Amino acid sequence: MLENEKDIVKVFYNDKEMMAILRVAQSLNLPDWWICAGFVRSRIWDVLHGFSQPTPLDDVDLVYFDPIHTDEAKEKELEQKLNSILPTVPWSVKNEARMHLVNGLEPYKDTVDAISKFPETVTSLGIKLDENDSIRLTFPHGIEDVLNMTVQPTPFFAESNQRMKIYHYRIRKKKWHEKWIKVTYLVE
Q1: What is the 8-class DSSP label of residue 106?
Q2: How far apart are CA 131 and CA 185, in angstroms?
Q3: Is 119 exposed, middle or buried (0-12, 13-18, 19+ CB in 10 A)?
Q4: What's the domain range around 71?
Q5: Which CA distances in Å does 10 have to 6, 19, 79, 132, 185?
Q6: Global pTM exceeds 0.85
Q7: CA distance linking residue 120 with residue 146, whole number of Å
């Protein structure tokens, strides 16, 4: 069972594929980088459901914060580099220093600030390796929802009707409850 951050860290340390992905991401030496969202959430939910095989990921979201080099072409270059190293991984690389423009928001302070403004609390999380090869986690809205498999909007999304429309659309589109039957929605 997973009950706390320490348990989550053990899951990732014991998963060779996920550690390989983290090490490759780390090798790019990107500023303020994290692998976020489904990479973390799906693995936690797979363990909580007792799945023997991990659920295939639609993508592996590698985010970073570089206010100097905000050209989208740089992100595509990084994706190509990652694909040449680990071609079976569906990489998606985004520089959060420019993503506020795409999302029509105020500039983010850093990557964790951007992650905190993701639609769902169970998506608003990240993982990375530090310089000592230790796993670091970020859960701007805590770990309770992901451990309880409870989906609800982040406070940032809950405060806006327009953002809540995006949240509702994502809930219908993602259909997480079909893959992970123990998932519940506090706000549908």
Answers
A1: P
A2: 37
A3: buried
A4: 5-185
A5: 6, 11, 28, 16, 27
A6: yes
A7: 10
Q: What is the CATH number of the domain that holds 150?
A: 3.30.460.10
Decide: 38 and 59 in contact? Cβ < 8 Å: yes
pLDDT digits (tens, 9 = 90+) for 4-55: 999 999 999 999 999 999 999 999 999 999 999 999 999 999 999 999 999 9
Percent of the chain with pLDDT over 70: 100
Nearest-5° Cα angle at 146, 23 to 115: 60
The pair of three-digit structure tokens given for residue 155, joined into one six-digit string: 């406070």
Domain count, the chain: 1
Q: How far apart are alpha carbons 110 and 116 in whole angstroms? A: 10
Which pLDDT score, from 0 to 100, does residue 103 have? Answer: 86
Structure tokens at 34: 């994290």
**For the segment 96-113, what is each residue's pLDDT rounded down to a tens digit?**
999 999 888 899 999 999
